[in-house]
Amino acid sequence: MAPTLFDRVYQHPLITLSDIQEIVSLHKKLMVPKGDFLLKKGKTADAYYLVEKGLVRFFVHDFNGNEITTQFICENEIVNEVSSLFQRIPSVQNIQAVTDTVVWEIVLNDFQHLYHTLESVREWGREWMSAQLFQSQLRSIEMITQSASSRYLQLMEQRPQIIHQAPLKQIASYLGIADTSLSRIRKEIFNG
Question: Is the model's pTM score more than 0.85?
Answer without folding.
Answer: yes
